[in-house]
Design brief:
This protein is α+β, with helices and mostly antiparallel strands. A three-stranded antiparallel β-sheet has the order 2-1-3. The protein contains three helices and three strands; from the N terminus they run E-H-H-E-H-E. The chain has a single domain, classed as Ribosomal Protein L30, Chain: A (2-Layer Sandwich), CATH 3.30.1390.10.
């Protein structure tokens, strides 16, 4: 077996550049539910549970009652794009909602 050599496995070259990812820390946003005097309370609870994933009936009732007593209530805190989506969904269902930075 003269003249026969085993080729050594090639090792991958190390990257010449390193990349860094930067994440911006955007403040969380609050989705606010505003009270009105014409929407039935049952509808408010139903819409909150429909729009906000995993919201319990008790949480929805508590939020609805807080808005009824205080004029508004915080529905959820989340990043801006999601807050905008929740606001639009609540408004499309006939509720009055806004968002603001936390």
């Amino acid at each position: 077996m003269e003249g026969f050599t085993l080729a050594s496995p090639k090792t991958p070259a190390a990257p010449k550049e390193t990349t860094r990812s930067r994440t911006t820390q955007e403040p969380p946003y609050k989705v606010l539910l505003h009270n009105d005097d014409f929407t039935p309370m049952e509808h408010v609870v139903e819409v909150l549970r429909k729009v906000i994933p995993r919201m319990s009936a008790k949480q929805a009732v508590d939020i609805m009652m807080e808005a009824h007593k205080n004029g508004y209530a915080v529905v959820i805190k989340c990043h801006k794009e999601l807050a905008e989506m929740y606001q639009e969904s609540l408004n499309n269902e006939g509720l009055i909602s806004t968002i603001e930075p936390d």
